[in-house]
Amino acid sequence: MKVKELLKMEDSRYPVRQILRWLWRAWRGNRLQAGLNAALGLIGVVISLSQVWAVQHAIDVAAHTIEGSLYWSVTLMGLLILCDFALHIASIWVRNILGIRAQNRMQQRMLDRILRSEWHGKERFHSGDVINRLEGDVSNVVGFLTETIPSTLSVLALFLGAFFYLFSMDALLAVLIIIMLPIFILVSKVYVKQMRKLTRKVRDSDSKVQSVLQETVQNRMLIKTLESDSMMVGKLESTQSELRHNVVKRTIFSVFSNLILNFGFALGYLIAFLWSAMRMYNNTLSFGGMTAFLQLVAKIQGPARSLTKLVPAFVSVFTAAERLMELEENPLEEQGDPIEMDSPCGVRLDNVSYAYTAEDGDVVKNLTFDFYPGSCTAILGETGAGKTTLVRMILALIKPQSGNAIIYNKEKEHQLSPLLRCNFVYVPQGNTLLSGTIRENLRLGRVEATEEDMNEALKQACADFVFSLPQGIDTICSESGGGLSEGQAQRIAIARALLRRGSIMLFDEATSALDPDTERQLLQNILEKRDKTVIFITHRPAVVDYCDQTLHIEKI
After folding, report:
1. What is d(CA 213, CA 134) in angstroms, rounded to the nearest whole number?
2. Digit-coded pLDDT (tens) for 260-305
3. Cα angle vertex 485, ends 500, 427, to 5°?
4. pTM of the model as a whole
5. Residue 155: exposed, middle, or buried by beta-carbon count in 10 A (0-12, 13-18, 19+)?
6. What Å distances lie between residue 12 and 18, 37, 326, 412, CA to CA?
7. Mutual angle of helices 149-169 and 287-308, in 10-degree steps
8. Burial grade of 471 (CB within 10 A; 0-12, 13-18, 19 or more)
9. Which of 47, 229, 280, 341 sits 20 to 30 Å CA-CA off 247?
10. Distance separating alpha carbons of residues 304 and 264, to the nearest angstrom
11. What are the angstrom distances between the C-alpha of 436 and each of 285, 439, 497?
12. What stretch of H or E contains 537?
């Protein structure tokens, strides 16, 4: 039977082989932990079977069935117990210490992949959903690759070792126990039919809950001022109700499957107990032998239980892998070394057009304009005319669907691409500070910036107020620049951008929160040397007065 038929994979977005290849690639970076877990598991099997023999030997010595030292036998039991303790501690260390490292590595790889992928303006997944996948699904995949699969090897080894041990004592009973297992495993397939679909529903509804929580916390001030507290709590309750409903349905299937399996295992244990009791009654089996019988049956059934759990484990990890693979569907941007051009540079647009969707139509259509080197340009236009889209095109976040967008200087020119983004300084509209210190925010502009560089950038951005703060540039800002006014946060964001060494500067409504005097001084500081090409998206007349040319964009 094919894996696809066993796991009911007909509704999957990805072929089974593709998912397995993805899991194989993910496993490559976690081989150390997987190998250690496998080794510890196999050592545990040896210790476990040795304990069975040691208990049987001690009981038979005590019952005078065989000769030997009872003290030595009990000492051996004690040493094996100590070995089991040490093994347990080692397993915890590997699972916790190396496990978190493996999870961190995979999260870093996934986040790096997301950051380097193309940007299309309209994200397919909510940020809360993405975070849910990077936490829950990554943990699921890493746990499966580094713990479930290695432990399966030791479980299989224990299963085989206990079976052959029991077979050496009573071949008929060993075969009878083994024959019973497939019957109940096949019956439990009813569980698998819906489990994969239900697991996906649970994970998706859990993502919805996290999305609501994240948006509510991020926009707490807005919700309070709109007095929509009860509405958001009600929305959370609605998504949580959906999650609970899916969890209940999945649990019903899980309980049903476990009930069938547990019935089979219990029946097998009773048969083994009756069989060994009859043999001991007929004096064909010692008391120690009966104890070993029952221990071995338990050690066969225990691994068998674990092996039957592999099917739902595969269902779960396949669902998690699919959700992570979806995050990787977006193609990567052009990769390579940055191409830094000598200043001054200009940007030329030749008959460019762009539409986010065919239904919405062109946002920018047949636009031609030259932001020539050393110029200062104001881009004007009503809301929705395509000003922000134009900036995204200049920054190579999106590509023109027709026409050419070119960066050039006296010596050469290139089609705009992500590799040329190093030539740009960009200040987006709104509050774009991250949580952390002002210093950490500034270093996003240039990691190697010195204290002197940061101080100079703050002065040029009219953010001198930072120097009078009790902790200076080490002042901590909360999320979205909390603790600072909008104007202060905007000036720090400008200083952060000025630390970049690009020769083309783009300001998207970057002075909207500044008072007229501060705005005027900032513009003078930026344009004083006239050594850069400056592009302003603005509605403010004061900015236009400082520009050499204007570009009016009409709404299509």
Report:
1. 16
2. 666 766 776 677 677 777 777 777 767 666 676 667 666 666 666 6
3. 25
4. 0.70
5. buried
6. 11, 31, 12, 49
7. 150
8. exposed
9. 229
10. 11
11. 72, 8, 17
12. strand 533-537
